[in-house]
Design brief:
Blueprint lengths: L11 E4 L8 H13 L15 H11 L7 H7 L5 H13 L11 H9 L12 E6 L3 H10 L8 E4 H4 L6 H11 L6 E5 L2 H10 L3 E5 L15 E3 L5 H4 L7 H18 L4
Parallel strand pairs: 1-2, 1-4, 2-3, 4-5, 5-6
Helix pairs in contact: 1-2, 1-4, 3-4
The chain binds magnesium ion (MG).
């Protein structure tokens, strides 16, 4: 069922980054898959009898971000040579952004929602910002690599700012940078406790990106709107996305060229 547009329409829109604008979950699986396929010499080798997908799922369930568990995990799957876990760790640490990209529709959505029918607080366009939790160096490099600088007005990185979602201080900083009041803004994110509860704590209306279509299970109040994909956002904020398929085709073609030309995989 179509959801009603926000009323009043927002004059500033803030987004979470990982798993909202970029497909961090898919990239993490791809990165683990490659790391786990390496031999002691750091080259990929065929591994009949090793259930890579199960190793990946267990790795994510145990330690979403680190490599300290690799050796124990490998041993549990019969890979007893510690050189393999070491090769996997080395490659994993030095290829942090392997296969990481924006969701195919993200570029078009960001451009579309910027063109508001209501002008933003400090001009004719809407203020668009990103609020992301994580280390300064990593998230800053990710922001640059994904080409987000030309698509948004600002990014607030918890590691740089000194407070993290759901602390209301980061949401208030986004309001300050956009020149908007809390009533003027909405926040779009995938994590109930950090994104949705955090925005609500700052009095900002929220959109939950629920890609897996799961039930709302957080103790905090439910979000104002729920979407499965961010391409459902423009109609909720009075913006027109145009023909998303054309944007997606362009983005994929660009990504192919970039990958072929890159030297770090
Ligand atoms: Mg997220």
């Amino acid at each position: 069922m179509a959801q009603r547009p926000f009323e009043p329409l927002p004059r500033a829109i803030f987004f979470d980054l990982d798993d909202t604008l970029c497909d961090y979950a898919a990239a993490r699986r791809s990165r683990l898959r490659y790391a786990f396929s390496l031999g002691t010499d750091g080259q990929p080798i065929a591994r009949p009898g090793v259930d890579l997908e199960r190793m990946i799922a267990e790795s994510i369930a145990m330690h979403p971000h680190g490599v300290d568990h690799f050796e124990a995990l490998f041993a549990r799957h019969g890979r007893l040579d510690p050189g393999e876990a070491r090769a996997a760790s080395d490659w994993y640490r030095t290829n942090r952004f392997h296969d990481l990209d924006l969701f195919p529709e993200a570029d078009a959505v960001l451009r579309a929602v910027r063109r508001a029918q209501t002008p933003g607080p400090s001009g004719h366009e809407r203020a668009i910002g990103i609020i992301t939790n994580g280390p300064a160096e990593v998230q800053r490099a990710k922001f640059e690599r994904l080409g987000l600088a030309e698509l948004v007005d600002f990014v607030i990185i918890s590691g740089e700012f000194g407070a993290a979602k759901p602390d209301r201080a980061v949401f208030e900083e986004a309001l300050r940078r956009s020149g908007a009041t809390a009533e003027d803004a909405i926040f779009v994110g995938d994590a109930p406790e950090f994104d949705i509860a955090g925005a609500q704590g700052a009095g900002i209306r929220s959109v939950w990106v629920n890609r897996d279509g799961v039930a709302w299970a957080s103790p905090s109040a439910p979000p104002c709107r729920v979407i499965r994909r961010i391409e459902e956002l423009p109609p909720l904020v009075g913006s027109d996305i145009g023909a998303p398929s054309a944007f997606v085709a362009t983005r994929r073609a660009q990504a192919t060229v970039t990958n072929e030309g890159s030297t770090d995989g």
